[in-house]
Amino acid sequence: MKNISTSTYKIGPLLALFLFITLSCDNASQQRVIPTTNPFIAVLGIAQDAGYPQAGQREEWALIKERKARPKNAVALALVDPVLKQRWLFEATPDFKFQLQMLDDISETNQYPLDGIFLTHAHMGHYTGLMNLGREAMGTSAVPVYAMPKMQEFLTQNGPWSQLVALNNIKLKALANEVEINLNPSIKVTPFLVPHRDEFSETVGYSIEINGKSLVFIPDIDKWAKWDKDILEVIKAADYAFLDASFYKNGEIPGRDMNEIPHPFVEESISLFESLSEADKAKVHFIHFNHTNALLFENSPEYKEVKEKGFNMAYEGQIIQFR
Question: Residue 302, class by beta-carbon neighbours within 10 Å (0-12 exposed, 13-18 middle, 19+ buried)?
Answer without folding.
Answer: middle
